């Protein structure tokens, strides 16, 4: 028996309360945090534990959810992936991904994205995935291009971090483009 949520390197799984420590540690890498969203003041261990517990107890939504990216062997949290901006009428959704700095460049993000897209396209009947990547995040821009995403546009100067304004590059992939590459 094979799980649709397990690849060669990673497994996507629900958050467990004990994951708090790994995610709190990822926040220590300020440049990576800025590349993914925005830098915030440090979080306490108590709040990190509470947030992980709340996430673990959140009721399941089949289309809008957050999953932990964990190593296949060892089940160690290395990041998270989530869906958002789900539009069931038009069959589109967006996703976000973050991998902790110590786990960069190991193939975890690309495998997690492919697993997520396979589920959303073939099990939930969506027809298009979208992702926004800040222009300063060269690694993520290269990843999305390598995976076959098409650059569809750019929101100019919409992100502020580290004293500068940056663009957001908008990427999209249709089910046909995914199937051609990954089916």
Description:
It is a single chain. This protein has a single domain (10-182), classed as Gcn5-related N-acetyltransferase (GNAT) (Aminopeptidase, 3-Layer(aba) Sandwich), CATH 3.40.630.30. It contains six helices and seven strands; from the N terminus they run βαααβββαβαββα. The protein has helices at residues 20-26, 30-36, 45-57, 108-122, 138-147, 175-182; strands at residues 10-13, 66-71, 77-87, 92-99, 128-134, 150-161, 164-174. It has a seven-stranded mixed sheet with strand order 1-2-3-4-5-7-6, with helices on both faces. Strand 6 (150-161) and strand 7 (164-174) form a beta hairpin. The relative contact order is 0.15. Its EC number is 2.3.-.-.
- CATH C-level class is Alpha Beta
The tally of strands reads 7
Number of helices: 6
**Rg to the nearest angstrom?**
16 Å
The residue ranges in which pLDDT falls below 50 over 5 or more consecutive positions are: none
The CATH architecture classification is 3-Layer(aba) Sandwich
Ends: how far apart? 19 Å
| Name of the CATH superfamily | Gcn5-related N-acetyltransferase (GNAT)
Q: What order do the strands of the largest sheet run in, or round the barrel if closed?
A: 1-2-3-4-5-7-6
- Mean pLDDT over the full residue set: 95
Tell the overall outline. globular
- What is the helix content? 25-40%
Order of helices and strands: EHHHEEEHEHEEH
Offer a few descriptive terms.
Aminopeptidase; globular; 6 helices; alpha+beta; 183 residues
């Amino acid at each position: 028996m094979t799980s649709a949520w397990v690849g060669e390197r990673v497994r996507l799984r629900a958050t467990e309360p004990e994951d708090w420590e790994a995610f709190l540690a990822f926040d220590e890498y300020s440049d990576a945090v800025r590349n993914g969203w925005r830098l915030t003041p440090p979080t306490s261990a108590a709040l990190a534990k509470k947030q992980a517990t709340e996430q673990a107890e959140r009721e399941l939504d089949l289309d809008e959810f957050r999953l932990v990216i964990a190593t296949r062997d060892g089940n160690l949290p290395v990041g998270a992936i989530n869906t958002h901006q789900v539009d069931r009428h038009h069959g589109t959704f967006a996703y976000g991904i973050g991998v902790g700095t110590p786990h960069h460049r190991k193939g975890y993000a690309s495998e997690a994205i492919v697993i997520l897209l396979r589920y959303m396209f073939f099990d939930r009947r969506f027809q298009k995935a979208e992702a926004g990547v800040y222009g300063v995040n060269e690694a993520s821009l290269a990843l999305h291009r390598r995976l076959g995403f098409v650059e569809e546009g750019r929101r100019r100067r919409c992100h502020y971090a580290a004293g500068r304004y940056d663009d957001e590059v908008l990427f999209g992939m249709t089910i046909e483009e995914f199937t051609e590459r990954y089916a």
